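Ops channel
N.P.: pipeline sanity check, posting one input/output pair.
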């Protein structure tokens, strides 16, 4: 699997980020105040050529239903207790936005960078993700994740592996950095959330090698369950069952990568 530069940059940015103190984050609790700031910052951005900047801002208890919030820098902002029904954020930078206790129905994120967002416990009915990139966003415990609007340009909402009925090759790293090549059969249950990893209900171990592929092994030990072993030629099912909710990323199943290099990079970093 090839990653775009934006996804690579996003990962590096997340690793390098140092959280700022909550007391230092601007707080907006008035629609009138926000309207004034929008006018001022849009005017300034028209001169500078940048995006109106609201990075790290906390929006609390605002009624922004139907508002035009397009083309803003909203990275690492928080919306808490807001009415965002039909609010248009199209074209905005929404990376790492946290949504708490809001009405997000029919919200528009068209063309947004919305990577690493938290939609946990939010109702996602009618959210328009056309052209949006939601890499690494959390949809676990959200409501109606299947009622969003997507198109051919929506990134990371659809599963990257075949959804059903088709076998494919998957990879994982075990203890001592042994790399396991696995066949996922057509009848195996499989799911992926919004990242490059997934889970399946059954695999056949095809090959086990060292990272540089200079050595071959007949077995490898799981890094999570010390009693679970991968053996060449064996069919395996997860010892603790399989969680069918695709959005519950860290849950029971045999976890995998679709790309060997990504698998090795994750385990050896």
């Amino acid at each position: 699997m090839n990653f775009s530069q934006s996804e690579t940059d996003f990962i590096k940015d997340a690793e390098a980020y140092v959280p700022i103190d909550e007391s230092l984050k601007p707080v907006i609790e008035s629609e009138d105040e926000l309207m004034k700031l929008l006018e001022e910052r849009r005017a300034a951005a028209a001169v500078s050529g940048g995006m109106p900047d609201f990075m790290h801002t906390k929006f609390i208890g605002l009624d922004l239903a139907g508002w035009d919030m397009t083309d803003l820098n909203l990275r690492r902002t928080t919306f808490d207790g807001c009415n965002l029904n039909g609010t248009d954020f199209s074209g905005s930078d929404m990376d790492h936005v946290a949504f708490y206790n809001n009405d997000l129905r029919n919200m528009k994120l068209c063309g947004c960078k919305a990577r690493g967002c938290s939609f946990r416990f939010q109702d996602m009915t009618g959210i328009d993700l056309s052209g949006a990139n939601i890499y690494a966003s959390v949809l676990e415990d959200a409501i109606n994740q299947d009622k969003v609007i997507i198109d051919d340009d929506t990134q990371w909402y659809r599963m990257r592996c075949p959804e059903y009925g088709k076998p494919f090759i998957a990879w994982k790293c075990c203890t001592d950095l042994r790399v396991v090549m696995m066949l996922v059969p057509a009848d195996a249950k499989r799911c992926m959330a919004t990242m490059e990893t997934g889970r399946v209900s059954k695999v056949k171990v095809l090959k086990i090698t060292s990272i540089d592929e200079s050595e071959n092994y007949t077995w490898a030990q799981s890094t999570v369950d010390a009693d679970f072993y991968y053996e060449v030629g064996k069919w395996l099912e997860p010892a603790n069952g399989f969680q069918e909710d695709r959005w519950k990323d860290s849950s029971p199943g045999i976890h995998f990568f679709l790309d060997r290099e990504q698998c090795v990079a994750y385990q050896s970093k």
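N.P.: looks fine end to end. The chain has two domains: 1-158, 168-268.
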